[in-house]
Amino acid sequence: MKNIKRFSILALALVLALGILTACGGGGSEEAADKTIKVAATPSPHAEILEFVKDTLAEEGWELEVQVYDDYVTENPATVDGDVDANYFQHVPYLEAYNEENGTNLVVAANIHYEPMQIHAGTKDSFDALEDGDKVAVPNDTTNEARALLLLEANGVIKLKEGAGITATKADIVENPKNLEIYEVEAATIPSVLPDVAIGVINANYAIGNGLKSEDAIAVEAADSLSADTYVNVLVTTEENKDSEKTKALVAALQTDEVKKFIEEKYQGAVLPKF
Asked: Per the CATH hierarchy, to which homologous superfamily does domain 118-222 belong?
């Protein structure tokens, strides 16, 4: 009887010990998973900037997992669904339009950078060289055409109707001293049409992709311009996660002097820090 009792006590102790070990193991896995920050991003410069801060986050005990997408349609749904903790690919007008169209409430966690629009030479290499009737290529989508027109206005080429701002179209041009033809084309194709136009207004990512350097541009959007403030690229998350430890850690890692230096040196003016 004593042996049976002793065996029962030992068996019970073993069961309890296994239960404790299992519980500890489960908690450890949960804790480890909670130290992983998942971010959806487009390749350049967003994913590249995120890759740069991986070691910084690792020193603080965080593992950064960057999920790279080539399109702009996957990142926001993935953030809403909780598949990732945040995303980094868009500017505020895009985010606001997405929330309005989809009934979502994604929020800005931090400003990170902006990509200044550039004016590059076609058949003319300066504004002074422009002649009556010359053709000027601008993007044909609403957002980028307005940016292009604002940049032309900032350099005295045209004048827009007062208040046109970030919704400007060529119909808002009230002064065009040289009767320039505003040639609206797909943004990605403007570098290829430069031989056929006097000048072209080009998005930074398309300029980079076609070997056009900002230092060779006729003009570049100013860091304190309306466009720079409006189209700053942001880190985005859900309302619930905005003040989470993960988001705070990620923002702190991204908004450093080291990241500023990395952006400035790597992209040579085609991408600029905005924090």
From this structure: Periplasmic binding protein-like II (3.40.190.10)
pLDDT tens digits for range 93-123 = 889 989 999 999 999 999 999 989 999 999 9
Residue range 79-99: mean pLDDT, rounded: 94
Higher pLDDT pick, 41 / 209: 41
Rg of the chain on CA atoms, in Å: 26
Cα separation, 41 vs 10, in Å, equals 55
Per CATH, 36-115+231-273 and 118-222 having the same topology is answered yes
What are the domain boundaries of the chain?
36-115+231-273, 118-222
Cα gap 134→84, rounded to integer Å: 48
Task: State both tokens at 129.
Answer: 């060289």
Provide CB contacts within 8 A for 193, sequence distance 6+. 122, 137, 183, 185, 200
What pLDDT does residue 269 have?
85
What rounded mean pLDDT belongs to the chain? 88
pLDDT level of residue 33 (50, 70, 90 thresholds): low
pTM equals: 0.73
Q: How far is CA 68 from CA 205, 235, 260, in A?
A: 16, 14, 22
Say how many CA atoms lie within 13 Å of 67 toward its Cβ. 17
Cα–Cα distance, 101 to 1 (Å, whole number): 75
Q: For 187, what's the count of Cα atoms within 13 Å in the CB-facing half-sphere?
A: 18
Taking 60 as the threshold, does the pLDDT of residue 17 lie above it? Answer: no
CATH code of domain 36-115+231-273:
3.40.190.10
- 200 vs 10, 71, 87, 115, 161, CA distance in Å? 83, 25, 31, 16, 22
Q: Is there a contact between 262 and 52 (Cβ–Cβ < 8 Å)?
A: yes
